[in-house]
Amino acid sequence: MIRELGLLDEHLDRHHAEFGRPVRDDQRGVAYPSVFLLDAGGMVVRKRAHRNYRIRDTGAGLVEEMLGGTASAHGVEAAADDEVVRIRAYLDSPTYRWYQRLRVVVDVAVQDGYHIYGTPIPEGYVPLSAAIDPIDGLEVGEADWPRPHPFRESGLSEEFWVHEGTVRGSIPLMFTKDGTGDHRIRVTVRYQACSATACLPPAHVRFELPVHEVAAVDAPAKQ
């Protein structure tokens, strides 16, 4: 079960103290939404609160991030593949609002017998990464990938960190300007695939993911 609650003024000082930060005057009187994931017995197993009260998650993004798996609906998918790697990318929502937190989801499927490099990595090799082209008013966070596992190549002294099988990463992003219109999010994924006996040249793929701006939801006028 997922529940979303507001953070009250009386809790602000204690909550901010946990992060070693004072409460600003402009933060009082404003509800900070917080998300709690409850198990079948009603115990909190995960919780999250954004640092800015304006920030909201998409429904699909919240389900995927808190519960895992893939939501039943999300943005348009784009895919590309070479001889050993298949990559799929999509936005967790086809639409956005001002200060809504979106995620670009990147699925990388590696053929059995091959791996792709993670980080840290010795100089001269290309690790898995994803980057988003800049757009005015778009804030992009750090890509989040699963932790790779250590691997040693026969005959080489360096230690490598690699991914095998299917890897899912995500990149948080958010439009902080209202009325910027529709966009195409351009994503570049870089990687290098190797087996125990051979390495393929570094490769990259580019995707364009459309997203449509919808009007912000205004609070109803007081009677």
From TrEMBL:
Indicate the segments forming the Thiol:disulfide interchange protein DsbD N-terminal domain, all copies: 102-207
Q: Tell me, what's a Pfam family for it?
A: DsbD_N
Superkingdom assignment: Bacteria
Note the InterPro entries from the entry: DsbDN, DsbDN_sf
Name it. Answer: Thiol:disulfide interchange protein DsbD N-terminal domain-containing protein
Taxonomic lineage from the root: Bacteria, Bacillati, Candidatus Sysuimicrobiota, Candidatus Sysuimicrobiia, Candidatus Sysuimicrobiales
